[in-house]
Amino acid sequence: MLSVKNISKSYGTHVAVDHLSFEVNDGEIFGLLGANGAGKTTTFRMIMGLLDPEGGSITLDGKPIDYSMTDRIGFVTEERSLLTKLTVRDQLIYYGTLKGMTEEEIEKKTDVWLERFGIKEYKNRKIKELSKGNQQKIQFISAILHDPKLLILDEPFSGLDPMNVSIFQKTILELKEKGCSIIFSSHQMETIELFCEKLLILVKGKVVLSGYLKDIKKEYRRKNIFIRGDVSIEKIKKVPGVLEITSFPEEYCVKIQDESVIDSVFKEVAKKQITKFVVEEPSLNEIFIEKVGQAYDE
């Protein structure tokens, strides 16, 4: 388990991370979200032991993270950190050796992962000769080659097509099943919703929202009603508790204050011919935009 307790970090007068605390259990995928400049990268660097926090503690399985513990961590950075003049094989041998693996172990696992990601024929090609998507695969393989106990994923799907995203997703879920603690950061909220049970949102280094995703959605209270049919938008707008209506090619999305408004909206549209009336929880993207926007306005 990763435990982050009350850590802070400043650069001069700028507070990048302000008394941050969270835990990631074994076999759990945790979402760390925030707009650019929120403090995510600084947090990752402190977890990796690249920066020292100003107070507080960071432990993995109860032990402080220092040089002796970094072999148990894998990190996929948003910016590619590959040595482009090396071949794929040499790149992975280099990273694997840094993580304490023998060359024999590295060779065996390299063949397995290259085969799985469909790039075995590139083993002796230089990194710079690979497409951006294939470079991202090598970056990912280098982070998991040593079976990390903690895996940090910062925009791991950047530059990937849907087929390769699917391969990454399956691999991440397998690592979770093996007990790996995973921190997932992405601006793609639908990806966070797919993977993460728990999350927190940072704004200017401070936590503005945290908890289990299902509880966050429940506490948000607002709902979305998707309606298809011959309805009067102007009349729906007048229903108390209706906040906003968005028109799509074949249906409308009616945002309401809370579930108590559902019956009133249904009574209004039931007067017409409708083929769809579906109530859904708000998306994480909606919640993120509102919470981050409120924090910046304060």
Structure commentary:
This protein has about 300 residues and is of the alpha/beta class. The chain has 2 domains: about 220 residues, Rossmann fold (3-Layer(aba) Sandwich); about 60 residues, Alpha-Beta Plaits. It is about 35% helix and about 30% strand. It has a 6-stranded mixed sheet with strand order 6-7-8-3-9-10. A 4-stranded antiparallel sheet has the order 2-1-4-5, with helices on one face. A 4-stranded antiparallel sheet has the order 12-13-11-14. A hairpin with a 4-residue loop joins β12 and β13. α2 packs across α3. The longest helix is centred in the middle third of the chain and has 16 residues. It is globular, with a radius of gyration of 23 Å. The mean pLDDT is about 90.
Describe what is shown at a glance.
By secondary structure, the chain is of the alpha/beta class. The protein has helices spanning about 40-45, 90-100, 105-115, 130-145, 160-175, 190-195, 215-220, 235, 260-270, 285-295, and strands at about 1-10, 15-25, 30-35, 55-60, 65, 75, 150-155, 180-185, 200-205, 205-210, 225-230, 240-245, 250-255, 275-280.
